[in-house]
Design goal:
With about 500 residues, the protein is mostly helical. The protein is about 70% helix and about 5% strand.
Length: about 500
Amino acid sequence: MKALKCELCGGTEIVKDGDFFVCQNCGMKYTLESAKKMMVEGVVQVEGTVKTDKTADAKRLLTLAKTACKTRNFCEAERYANKVLEIDLDNIDAWAIKSIAIDWQLTIKNNRLRESSDCFLKTFQLLPNEVKTCEGLIHAWSVIKSLKLHLDDIVEAVSSLYAKPIINTPSDDNLALITGTLASHLEIRKSQWEAIGKLSFTFCKAKEEMLKSPDISDSQRHALNDTDMEKYFFTEEIPRMYFTAANIIDSSVVDGVTKWRDKWENNNIFDYYLDGSGVDQSAEEDAFDMCTLVYNRYELALRTAIKFLETETEGCSITGLSSITGLILAPELLFNVWSNLCVIEELNMGHKTYTRAHGAYVSNSVKEGFSLNAEAITLRKKRLKEDMAKRDEYDPEKKKERERAEKEAELQAKYWLDNPVKKTQKQALEDEFDRLGNELRELKSRRSFFSPFEFKAKRECDAKIEQARERRQEIKNSLKALDDELLAYVSNEIES
């Protein structure tokens, strides 16, 4: 049998319409005679719909989808990907492109994450089928790489999308974008990273087995060796993802607090014009309460960033992965976030309104208006103290001090272990020093009971006291010499 191919556009989907055959791609019409002349190898049904092989169409549409995706025309990329899937529902590249295209069309009002995630999942369900051949494995790896690079970029973009609105509008809705929407979004991305990690291990193992096989050709072996196939440690990528999100939240909150503080300090004085009808302070009170709420929202946003950093980096190793800067810098960012949180807490405790009265019998002096009550201040001070302690855990300078102290203690223990004679000598001197201290106290106490006329007893007691003092000073000098030797050893060991 033979198939029809349009001479104008090359389309193969041609349908009989009355006395003509019509190309469904370009609309060109052919008579029966003309149709017979242009028949090529294939399968044709002369009556009704012409059944054709659409592989060429799928390939052409996939090329258009890739081009649109590369040029960031994601709406068109999704449209072409859908057309490919209408022809071939198991096309891996089309599912991957559709997932990427939908991701880049996400907005706050149009969150299609679940839809893109389904496309992502479908891609990963199909990928294992590709590892049966060398060419298929190489193709599957290229898809893995493209999705990995996409995740790196989309996480930063989405974090900015959901975190930055709070800069100018610190509302409950914008706070929820961080604490709820972004947190849920990252959970889905976490599962995607896990899928990439698991498949990368599988593909690397498949590559190793193929290279061992005597059945592959030299060209296939070269092609496999040329692929930059590596095992993606998703347990490292996930913390880096949360680091990125936390960093963007932190910078957004800092910018937002700076703007709000400047705005508040320029608008926290309220003027009242006294005319005998009383004073309505409701607007002032509402402004104070709003300021408290705003600072509370910024605090909660930072606590979300802290949760990302502290929870998601636990137990993650960076062995052999120096590129995972998120993990390396996480303690530094934690210190910054905790520090910023403490600053906001202090601002929240200290913010207040001021009043200025105007009238015939009052001055225009400024007086304090609304502020937090004593009970609220006490509770907030307690929490601030706890948060400062957490901040100090990540303080790089204090961390260095703690590490040096731990090292010094370790070296001191080693020194005394290596020098048992000196250790025994030191202990003996300390015991004697303590004994002489007790003896001095006893002598001083005894002397106080002597009568004014017991001159000889007093002189003998004074002599013993002086002797004990001189011996204690000798012991102090000896102990200092031993300590100096110890300190010199510790210092040399640390410097070396």
